[in-house]
Amino acid sequence: MLLVVVLALLFFNFVCIPFRIKGYSMEPTYMNGEFNFCFRLQYTFSKPEKEDVVVIRLAGKKVMLLKRVVALEGDMVEFRKGKLFVNEEEVEEDYVRYPSDWNLPPRKVDKNHVYVVGDNRNVSIVMHRFGQTSIDRIIGAPLWKK
Amino acid sequence: MVITGAVLAAGIIAFFIFSQSEEAKVKKQFSVLAEKIKKTEKETPLVAAAKANRIKELFAETCTVHAPAYSFSRDISSQDLPSLVLTTRSRYSKMSLEFYDFAIEFPEEGSAQVSLTARILGKLTTGKYVDDVHELRCKLQKREELWLLKEIEVVEVLEK
Questions:
Q1: Which runs of E-coded beta strand occur in chain A?
Q2: What is the pTM of this model?
Q3: Fewer beta carbons below 10 Å: N end or C end of chain A?
Q4: Other Cβ atoms within 10 Å of B92 Cβ, number
Q5: Cross-chain CB nearest to B160 (options A62, A65, A130)
Q6: How confident is the model over B20-41, as pLDDT tens digits?
Q7: Does A47 lie at the interface with B, CB-CB under 8 angstroms?
Q8: Buried b (16+ CB within 10 A) or exposed e, B127-149
């Protein structure tokens, strides 16, 4: 019995961390209040790719951010009238369903960083949390993908 | 050999207990801060003023606040704190501050570095709800057995 408890604790702390989504940043892909697991082994042998939805840690694992990777290190990222451009080319984003009017001048993604954005861009660019983050902060991906 | 081992073990245990208690004291300061920031819809102006005034007891004479994402960097004196806190809290009809994921280090005697996640939950007087999380790096200094906030940096986790 004790072994089961220990294994369960290890599993839910180091392999699949349960979490509940609070917020609207990833709608309509992931809705506010939904339950999921952060699969921590996702990037053990690989690095995040474009279009991956990733879990980003803050100081620890109690509160994390859920965002989509849109550009990798060395890429130039830009928003023009709500459209995403990476290296001057417009990116087709099927996962973005709500209208957006974002404008953001081009910026280069630093080494060992990725550029992440939420799918819900129908909010002011000032209010939406997005940008480049260190790969070290990505601790996994949602287990139930959409 | 046995005595050396016992002394060593006692030293390790004493160090562990000492470190634990200092960590607990640091955490306690954040818990008091959260308690002072907390606001309910029933709070009276008198209680608000008293809370704002007592917050300065948690800070060093001057506290430097850096928030690169907002291009904000300012030294705030403990004398200016109550009015600043009062003004900020007055924008909310209710609010709470929660701290998670503490990582505490003591780089030197009388000095602590804390990394944590802070979450502000609340409702503005305009009716808008606020749910904001940030990673903070704080420096505290020990004054008369109290750990006082000396520096707060809002870490830019996502850099636009």
A1: 16-20, 35-39, 53-57, 64-71, 76-80, 83-86, 89-90, 104-108, 113-117, 131-134, 138-142
A2: 0.87
A3: N
A4: 20
A5: A130
A6: 589 999 999 999 999 999 999 9
A7: no
A8: eeeeeebbbbbbbbebeeeebbb
Examine the residue annotation and report whether A25 is marked as an active-site residue of this protein. yes
The predicted model gives B2-18 an average pLDDT of: 63
Average pLDDT over residues B119-148: 95
**Nearest residue on chain B to A24, alpha-carbon basis:** B131
Chain A residue with minimal CA distance to B114?
A: A59
Chain B positions touching A59 (Cβ under 8 A) are: 100-103, 115-117, 135-136
A104 touches chain B (CB under 8 A): yes
**Span A10-30, average pLDDT:** 95
Which of B64, B39, B60 is closest to B51 using CA atoms? B39
High-pLDDT (> 90) share of chain B, %: 82
Q: Do B158 and A104 touch (CB under 8 A)?
A: no
CB atoms A58 and B131 under 8 Å: no
Write out the residues of chain B at the interface with chain A, using a CB-CB cutoff of 8 A: 100-103, 115-117, 119, 131, 133-136, 155-160
SS3 for A118? Answer: coil
Q: Tell me the C-alpha distance between A68 and A86, whole Å.
A: 14
